[in-house]
Amino acid sequence: MGNSQASPSSASSASFVMASRAFSKQALDDLRAHFSSLAAQSGTQGRAISRPVFLDYFGVRGALGDRLFQLVAKESSVEDGVTFEGLIVSKATYERGTKDEADEFIFQLCDVMGDGILTRSDLEAVLASIHETIFADNKEAREGSNKDTFEAFLNSAVFSKDAGGVSEKSMSLSDFRKWCIVMPSLRKFLGSLLMPPDSGRAGFQVPLLHYPENSSELLVLNKEYAWHIGGGFSQHDVQEWKLLYHSSLHGQSFNTFLGNVTNGDAQTVLVIKDTEGSIYGAYASQPWERHSDFYGDMKTFLFKLYPEASIFRPTGANKSLQWCAVNFTSENIPNGIGFGGKPHHFGLFLSAGFDQGHSFTSSTFTNPPLSNTSRFRPEVIECWGIQVKGSNDGKPELVKGTVLERFKEDRNMLKLIGMASASD
Question: Which segments constitute the TLDc domain (predicted)?
């Protein structure tokens, strides 16, 4: 299916014909409508989308936006923009191709200099574009953000490839893939740049952080960190995160922590800053409840935030996912909260005194020690409750107890019909 405004040679090109097969007729018609609208604004007699219109529509700022336009325009038959054929060929490779094809396209995309060598300077430009695109243009995301945080994202990248004639090492495709694994928000963002901007593009959403007034300077978590952690979630909707516990606000108390987090949503993010300045934590997909053994599910993961940022997902090697032991007297059941590994040798653990913890390599998450030393002392402990936006609209906040204790209005209604006493 060619574009009536394109030349016959480009419309019949083998690459375009092959790429078209990746889309349904309806999808092609929708893309054609988008193309026609953008081309009409471009001053190209409808032949192509100009660079300014392309960048304004897709909303990717800085060097990354320029490189995206360059790659898509390369598949086009004109010199002044992106043709319909070029757009389809690029999207078919980038969005509908094999994993190898998509990875190669994104790898080239991050080579913003276009010299075939992916260096630290390229990634600095990519991260600067991401920050400008997601945070600088969004007032809600901009408040409470910190551009310097992106340095930690760069610190998790590995450059192992020797580049001829260049003193610094470059990033191989294998290095890049490994970086994307520990930086899932980055991969989601880079993989959705040609989607319509009104479609809720993956990797563009920033969680909404709710916390008490005048407490922002106490917080360890910022918007960039939340964006990074949120990439590990399976949900695609914007999440709202509510501060349930902060050691500086509520006191460094295990009992207070449990009291606060069990009154909140089931999913929580634990953030720890230790006395050496490292920041790390875990996402707990299950409620914090007293157990004498590990529990939880495969959604749980560990993460590092500073001085480098990474996410470590469960490997399936074991089920040692989440730990919450309270008031046990057995030495085999250490009181506190933890993740991965085994008792006394967790992937991450906070003692019930909240005054010490440890982090060891674990096969549960294939994580390295999250702290600089295997044993650490926490300086700040935060816990955030996660609520997917819109999933609990109109419902009261979750609290412990029976259903009748949670919903007093329901209880009163049951009393009127004589059922409350029978339900106790």
Answer: 219-387
How many residues would you count in the chain? 424
The reported pLDDT for the residue numbered 399 is 33
Residue 417, pLDDT > 50, answer no
**How far is residue 280's CA from residue 277's CA, in Å, rounded to a whole number?**
10
Angle between helices 120-131 and 99-110 (to 10 degrees): 90
Residue 79 — pLDDT band, cuts 50, 70, 90?
confident
The CA distance from 179 to 156, in Å, is: 7
- Bridge partners (DSSP) listed for residue 324: 337
Average pLDDT of the segment spanning 288-292: 94
SS3 243: strand
- Radius of gyration from C-alpha coordinates of the chain: 25
Closest CA to 350 of 277, 252, 263: 252
CA–CA separation, 417 vs 395, rounded Å? Answer: 23
Query: Rounded to whole angstroms, what are the CA distances from 329 to 123, 325, 333, 342, 404?
Result: 51, 10, 7, 17, 33
Q: Indicate if the pLDDT at residue 190 is higher than 80.
A: yes
Residue matched to tokens 């998790």:
156
The torsion angles phi and psi of 344, rounded to 5 degrees, stand at 70, 0
- In Å, how far from its chain's centre is CA 315? 19
Residue 60: closest CA among 185, 153, 192, 221: 192
Q: What is the pLDDT of residues 92-127, one digit of tens each?
A: 999 999 999 999 999 999 999 999 999 999 999 999
Does the structural domain 13-191 have CATH classification 1.10.238.10? Answer: yes
pLDDT over 60 at 377, yes or no? yes
DSSP 286-317: S-----SS-B--TT-EEEEEESS-EEE---SS
Tens digit of pLDDT for each residue in 15-65? 889 999 999 999 999 999 999 999 999 988 899 999 999 999 999 999 999
239 versus 225: the higher-pLDDT residue is 225
Strands of 307-377 (E only): list them.
Answer: 310-312, 322-325, 336-342, 345-351, 357-358, 375-376
Query: Residue ranges per domain, the chain?
Result: 13-191, 208-388
Strand pairing report for 208-210 and 239-246: parallel
